[in-house]
Design goal:
By secondary structure, this protein is mainly α. It contains 3 helices and 2 strands. The protein has a two-stranded antiparallel sheet with strand order 1-2. The relative contact order is 0.05.
Length: 83
């Protein structure tokens, strides 16, 4: 394809729909794959124990704390932009 033909093809707005659709589909596929990998490869939440074996903080307590943390958006508490 010559340079002039390529430029005229790109400048034709009717053909942009095809290119943008392909980019959109690849972007969604990437997003879903990253979400899947993040969800299923997340590390387990352990119980925190003393050296004697007594449980200090259970995994259930940590999970409940995460729910409260997300419910009230505490990442943004006390900072200007939530950083």
């Amino acid at each position: 394809m010559k340079a002039n033909n390529f430029i005229s093809y790109i400048m034709n707005m009717r053909k942009w729909g095809i290119v943008l659709s392909i980019i959109f589909i690849f972007s969604l596929c990437g997003l879903f794959l990253i979400g899947y990998q993040t969800h299923y490869n997340a590390p387990p939440i352990p119980d925190f124990k003393e050296s004697s074996g007594k449980i200090l903080i259970s995994a259930n307590s940590i999970t409940e704390g995460q729910v409260v943390f997300h419910k009230y958006a505490l990442m943004e508490y006390g900072t200007m932009f939530g950083d």
